[in-house]
Amino acid sequence: MSLKYVLLGLLTQQPRYGYELKREAEQLLGNGAELNPGQLYPLLRKLAEQQLIAGERVEQEDRPDKRIFTLTEAGAHELSAWFDEPVPLSVGRSALFVRFVVLVLVRPEARAGFLKEQRHRLLEFIGQLVADRAKHLGSEDLSTRALRELTVLHAEADLKWIELLETLES
Amino acid sequence: MNKTPERALRSTLAEEALPRIRVNALTKVYQRGGEPVQALAGIHLEIAPGAFVAIMGQSGSGKTTLLNILTGVDRPTAGEIWLDGQRLDTMSEAQLAILRRRRIGLIFQAFNLLNNMSALENVMLPALLAGRSASEARKLASVLLDELGLGKRLQKLPGQLSGGEQQRVAIARALVNEPAVLCADEPTGNLDAQTGQEILHLLKRLHTQGQTIILVTHDAQIASQAERIVVMRDGRIIDDMNGQGSLPVSPTLLADMSGLEMC
Asked: A169 — contact with chain B (CB < 8 Å)?
């Protein structure tokens, strides 16, 4: 349910056109984010149907009409209620976890090789993130920095988890 | 007897193929409370000249014991250690002390500078011990410190320097005798994240200039920046892989939005 609140949040600032919401949501979510218009526009329609936002048609001379979106009072309440809810804690069933348990079920002999391969990939990934961080030092927005640190720490947690499983194995 | 060009070439190649460090069937057993503790359980390792190798493991994995033995600080229980074709494990303490001074540069987590000597004197000291004249040692030390960005801090005492500056002095001290290997034991362990990254960046720069570096760390972020990562556990090498130092940076690392739900 995350992108919905990104859009509601952006609309608290001022009314926006769809393409502005796309660009600003990408910026807010950190460098490199790309939203698929095929997902964004249906979501805007849905939010308008739920009356959380209002879309007003703006005529254009030589192009199809565009819509400008504003936040409704119900939308503002929805956003406030979201802030008041506890943030869901990340749950353990990551892609790595699911792959591991299914692999151990189907190919138990491949377990050690799988864990080793994941360590290689994670160390390589951490290496790239750390090198990328050094390259952009001091020249980034908060979202991009926060996202990178979150990603590095998750990768390190995965690495520790792999180490733990390897120790259990021996 | 003159060598034919072909033979000369072959012997040059053989020289180049000689590893900087070769470790064969290395073991170390400590006695702890009357009980034998196996710190190293049969290590085989070759490190090429100019390599930048991280030895990564948790505390108790044997990584520091391995480094101490490689640098002649500690002795193995069994096994061979060769540095540039010279065997270390059979040397006397006196021979080892000379080799350590001339061929091995050490940096530590706690910097280990002499607190009553200036930055310049700290760096001069190993050069003097290796037999250089005071003026030579002074020149070498000041050039190195200048290269490491401390040209204006030569006369400061360690206590007047920041952690990052102290570690750079320690790196200059380790490099002053142009060691065959620069060995670093958790060199960023006492530094904040950003200063740690700067020291790491400095090590990467030294590596590109041809310095052979062995870096011991528990920290995956630090280890990941080496050219090669050797992973240790329970006194054994359990993995050996290429690191970031051997890879280009991908331009779209953070682009994946799959973590964000779209409704």
From this structure: no
- Averaged pLDDT, A151-165: 94
Sign for the pseudo-dihedral over CA of B95, B96, B101, B102: positive
Q: How far apart are CA B134 and CA B262, in angstroms?
A: 69
pLDDT reported for residue A136: 84
A–B: how many Cβ contacts below 8 A?
92
* Confidence check: pLDDT of B9 > 80: no
Q: Which residues contact A71 (CB under 8 A, 6 or more apart)?
A: A8, A11, A12, A52, A53, A79
- Name residues whose C-beta falls within 8 Å of residue A93's C-beta, 6 or more positions apart in sequence: none
pTM over 0.90: no
Question: What letter does residue A110 receive in the DSSP assignment?
Answer: G
pLDDT in tens, B145-195: 999 999 999 999 999 999 999 999 999 999 999 999 999 999 999 999 888
Q: If DSSP codes are grouped into helix, strand and coil, which group holds residue A51?
A: coil
CB contact under 8 A, A32 and B224: no
Q: Does A32 touch chain B (CB under 8 A)?
A: yes
Backbone angles phi and psi of B227, in degrees to 5? -80, -30
**Averaged pLDDT for residues A141-147:** 88
Spatial separation of the C-alpha atoms in residues B23 and B79, rounded to whole Å: 8
- Of B82, B63, B64, nearest to B24 by C-alpha is B82
ipTM for this model: 0.83
